[in-house]
Amino acid sequence: MPKYPEFSGRVIAVTGAAQGIGAATARAFAEQRAHVVLLDIDELGAQQVAAEIRASDGRALAIKIDVADEKSVDHAIAAVVSEFDKLDVLINCAGGYGRLATLEDTTVEEWDRTVALNLRSVFLCCRAAIPHLKKSKAGRIINVASISGRTVFAASSPAYGSSKAAVIQLTRFLAQQLGPAGITANAIAPITTLTRRVAALRTKEDVERIASQVPLRRLATPEDSAQAMLFLASDAASYLNGIVLDVNGGRVMM
Ligand SMILES: NC(=O)c1ccc[n+]([C@@H]2O[C@H](COP(=O)([O-])OP(=O)(O)OC[C@H]3O[C@@H](n4cnc5c(N)ncnc54)[C@H](O)[C@@H]3O)[C@@H](O)[C@H]2O)c1
Hints:
The chain has helices spanning 20-31, 43-55, 70-84, 108-133, 158-178, 196-201, 204-212, 222-233, and strands spanning 11-15, 35-40, 59-64, 89-92, 140-144, 184-190, 244-247. The radius of gyration is 17 Å and the shape is globular. The model has no long low-confidence stretch (mean pLDDT 96). The chain is built from eight helices and seven strands. By secondary structure, the protein is α/β, with parallel strands linked by helices.
């Protein structure tokens, strides 16, 4: 029995769904009987996750997108709507950064690439999706920010943290401007999350050190974020608008 039966038949588009938090989110919505569209620049990876979901009796389709490119975004969102005739939920999950760097060490190219991937992407995807979300009875936007956009850690990237802070502010604008149309916009801000990519990058000592600073004494899992997004997209959260859910085990409380 699905926890959120209202998702049956709703169309959920997730960017960055070929791996990590995005893939876990696509799987979680598919388990709730939603129609899931996996949008990713890694077309093959997205197709593989979609095939796994279908093999478990879920409904999933992969479409290629470059979230930083206006034409690609407009084309991909149009393809979602032409396939399903509607769009109910947009989850902006694609994001990340190349390397840890101080501001002095950051090149202009790195800065622009990081801001485009994390911030312009959310602007472009929301702008393309809004006309369709307005026609939904349960329109939702969920933006994946980061603890790096909530506070400053020693080891991060100024371009990344600044972009994620801006994503939070963009979420508030969306909440204010789309609320009258019945659309909610919220964000999540995860701490370091044990995706396969992060697990490969971090040593056992790194993981233990970060976990020791978290009151719950562990890093986040992709499923922790997926569950927070299921809740934000659900009917139970219909009066939550413009909020940030900190998926961080109590590491930073605000
Ligand atoms: N993993 C963490 O520790 C962590 C912590 C806080 C926030 N986040 C945020 O969560 C989100 C997902 O992180 P993750 O670690 O699961 O990511 P990941 O690196 O595992 O996956 C990112 C996905 O985005 C896709 N992608 C990259 N560039 C793209 C583009 N231009 N267009 C479309 N797709 C593109 C990649 O192909 C990949 O499938 C990101 O926004 C990230 O900033 C991650």
